[in-house]
């Protein structure tokens, strides 16, 4: 009789565990069936959508690639103009020297802005992979000449 009671208790325990598992499975199915999964996965899907709309976009990749060249070229253009003005300054009149000095100051500020824009974009995780391998990782604001190829 004791053995029968043990078996009956084991069966009841097994049924109780099975019932709890069945309820848990039904709950999970209900969550997915009625949109709960969408709520649970929304942050993940949002990040994927955001990445696909930017980094995954061919237009974004191409424009970012070209943007690094454009910024580096802007720095070089400012340097070239500064150098040309410094050459002109050697033989310029006093009035023209003042004008040249003002232009050089403005070009130096523009050059620093371009260097900072380049470095900022190069540091952005979603843009950095699209910087050409021949372009420098960072530009140096205090450098006299910038080289846009390694």
Enumerate how many helices there are, as a single number: 4
What order do the SSEs take from the amino end to the carboxyl end, as H and E? HHHH
Number of strands: 0
Low-confidence parts lasting 5 or more residues at pLDDT below 50?
Answer: none
Mean pLDDT: 83
Biggest beta sheet attributes: none
* Beta-strand residue fraction: under 5%
Helix fraction bin: over 70%
CA radius of gyration is 33 Å
Global structural class: mainly alpha
Distance from N terminus to C terminus (CA atoms, Å) equals 89 Å
Structure, explained:
By secondary structure, this protein is mainly alpha-helical. The chain has four helices and no strands. Helix content is 75%, strand content 0%. It has helices spanning 2-33, 36-53, 58-89, 94-123.
Topology of this structure?
Layout: H1 2-33, H2 36-53, H3 58-89, H4 94-123
